[in-house]
Amino acid sequence: MMDAFSLNEILVVVTVVLGAALIHGVFGLGFPMVATPLLALVTDVQTAILMTLGPNIAVNVWSMLRGGNLGESLGRFWHVAAWMLLGSVLGTLLLILLDPNPFRLLLALTIVLYLLSDQIKRIDFSIIQRHPKGSGRVAGLAGGLMGGTVNVGGPALMIYFLELRVAPLVVVQATNLAFLVGKSAQTATFTAFGMISPGLVLLSLPLAILALVGLRTGMAIRDRFSADAYRGWLRGVLWVLSGLLVVQFFRAL
Question: Most Cβ neighbours (<10 Å): which of 129, 167, 176, 184?
């Protein structure tokens, strides 16, 4: 597959993977959010998703295992990952069969409504705190659907965990378990449709190594944040992401 890329395009791919992994290391999530739209500048969206399957799984596994207390984190939120598996399969089927572009606008609108919920009093997200398991199922299913269609499943989980106000380490471990399950389901679905080639696997391996380098650098930065600063940065990421999704939607029309 690398024969299909020019030297400049290869440099873009390497830079994007390193940068997206660094951001994932800082916030505990974000690799597909950053990598997919940028890689789509040198290829199509579906190829960008396929190229990042290996790096995605690598950063998810490493992020999930780091920090200790993994059993406690996963014991509380395993149900989110279970529903993300189902959502990822459905979302990947939609990606294969339908135009995924409208999902970008829907996701952007959901993010903005959440961020403005303090100002728009009619929108009450306190149901997440009152019914954490039920809302976790909804967040997992929604995250899987969005991850399968536009490769951006993080916002649904970010909204869920921000409302629960759990510790940053728990957020990182639980979301990366969900991402790992979701990406594994997406990979299996693509494989079932004959879309995973040996060349793609060979391309993903060095990209996965690059992603781990960026991830470790980002983790070193994250260790300097307090919990309140971490949540503030996550809200900032959501604002930026919603804007990028709107731009992508209109570019794809």
Answer: 176
* pLDDT number for residue 216: 93
What pLDDT was estimated at residue 83?
A: 96
Q: What angle do CA 63, 12, 249 make, to 5 degrees?
A: 80
52 contacts 40 by C-beta, under 8 angstroms = no
Three-state secondary-structure class, residue 29: coil
What parts of the chain have a pLDDT lower than 50? none
Reduced to 3 states (helix: H, G, I; strand: E, B; else coil), residue 251 is helix
DSSP characters for 96-153? HHS--HHHHHHHHHHHHHHHTTTTSTT---THHHHSHHHHHHHHHHHHHHHHHHHS--
Looking at residue 50, what DSSP letter applies?
A: H
φ and ψ of 226, to 5 deg: -85, 165
Which 3 state secondary structure label does DSSP give 205? helix
